[in-house]
């Protein structure tokens, strides 16, 4: 598999790391370059949980045994970024451990199902768009070469990830095929550094949709609707006290959907002596309202001589309606002496 251009030591060193699958475990840590690379992976919450392990034991073991730095992005997001940094041999070892862990997860899940064919291990790399041309090659020649020589399936997304200049590169196959594939991708990345500034992809936090049905309030967590007794009480109080559009007619806004209505702004004023019940201790209540409604809520500072504070709510009509409802419910509960909710 010749490379275009003159052979360089970096290529030779990397190619010397291409053992057969039988030698993978022993050879993956031999040789290598003292070049620090950073590779970013996009994972779903369940995959991240598998990598972290109970009390963080799995990721700790991966860090120690591979010698690579493995960082996992924070946040209540359906997607997380896993960043692997280190010399090439450390990166390959970390990838080997992740790929084998995912294969183990697939094997375990199959023991409880009727499926007969084993699905491949799949990893999603996040690569600067400026490097994707080199990865695809002229007329797709490079990506075809990688597919044929490793046996892995490789797909480069046509569109950039939201609010970034990065694209997702999906690799699937056996763990050994994936490791060989990552090695070849690393060679391309070393040969063709990113051009210009890269805007990294940052997954959006998941807003928690709220559904009201049959007088009960539910928050959506994964595939399940979890009854929320506190919200149910507030909902019942608010429906008694304030006229409100039935919430069943509004669709909770899910992040990442381009079809959501345009954002608008709504302002309301609250008496100074009731603002505390909206904000809550150390801002807990207002943060809860922000998260549940998906709206941005700003409370103006107190102005001298005024007995009221202004609240500005920004978001889709559904977000604003839900935020208004939750604020009204907080006020209602305070006025009716149920402020402990």
Give the overall average pLDDT: 77
The percent range for strand residues is: 15-25%
SSE order: HHEHHEEHEHHEEHEEEHEHHEEH
Low-confidence stretches: 1-32, 241-259
Q: Looking at the structure, what is the overall shape?
A: elongated
According to DSSP, the number of beta strands is 12
User: Helices and strands: which structural class?
Assistant: alpha+beta
The helix fraction, in percent, is 25-40%
- First and last CA, distance: 67 Å
Strand order in space, largest sheet: 2-3-1-4-6-5
Q: How many alpha or pi helices? A: 12
Largest sheet: 6 strands, antiparallel
* Cα-atom radius of gyration: 26 Å
What does this 3D model show about the protein?
The chain is of the alpha+beta class and 341 residues long. The protein is 39% helix and 22% strand. It contains 12 helices and 12 strands. The strands form 3 sheets. It has a 6-stranded antiparallel beta sheet. Helix 9 crosses helix 12 (317-335). The protein is elongated, with a radius of gyration of 26 Å.
């Amino acid at each position: 598999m010749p490379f275009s251009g003159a052979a360089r030591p970096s290529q030779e060193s990397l190619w010397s790391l291409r053992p057969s699958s039988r030698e993978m475990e022993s050879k993956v840590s031999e040789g290598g370059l003292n070049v620090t690379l950073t590779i970013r992976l996009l994972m779903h919450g369940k995959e991240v949980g598998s990598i972290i392990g109970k009390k963080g034991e799995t990721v700790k073991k991966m860090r120690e045994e591979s010698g690579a730095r493995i960082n996992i992005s924070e946040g209540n997001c359906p997607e997380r970024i896993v960043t692997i940094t280190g010399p090439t041999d450390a990166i390959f070892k970390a990838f080997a451990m992740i790929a084998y862990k995912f294969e183990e997860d697939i094997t375990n899940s199959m023991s409880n199902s009727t499926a007969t064919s084993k699905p491949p291990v799949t990893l999603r790399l996040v690569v600067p768009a400026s490097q994707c041309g080199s990865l695809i090659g002229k007329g797709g020649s490079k990506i075809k070469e990688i597919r044929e020589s490793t046996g892995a399936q490789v797909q480069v997304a046509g569109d950039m990830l939201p609010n970034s200049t990065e694209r997702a590169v999906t690799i699937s196959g056996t763990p050994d095929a994936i490791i060989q594939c990552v090695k070849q991708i690393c060679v391309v990345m070393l040969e063709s550094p990113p051009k210009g500034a890269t805007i990294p992809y940052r997954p959006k936090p998941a807003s928690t949709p709220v559904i009201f049905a049959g007088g009960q309030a539910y928050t959506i967590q994964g595939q399940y609707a979890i009854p929320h007794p506190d919200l149910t009480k507030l909902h019942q109080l608010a429906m008694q006290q304030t006229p409100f559009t039935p919430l069943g007619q509004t669709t909770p806004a899910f992040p990442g959907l381009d079809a959501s209505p345009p954002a608008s702004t709504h302002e309301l004023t609250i008496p100074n002596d009731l603002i505390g019940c909206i904000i809550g201790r150390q801002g807990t209540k207002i943060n809860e309202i922000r998260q549940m409604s998906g709206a941005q809520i700003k409370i103006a500072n107190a102005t001298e001589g005024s007995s009221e504070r202004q609240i500005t709510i920004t978001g889709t009509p559904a977000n604003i309606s839900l935020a208004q409802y939750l604020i009204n419910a907080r006020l209602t509960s305070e006025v009716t002496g149920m402020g402990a909710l």
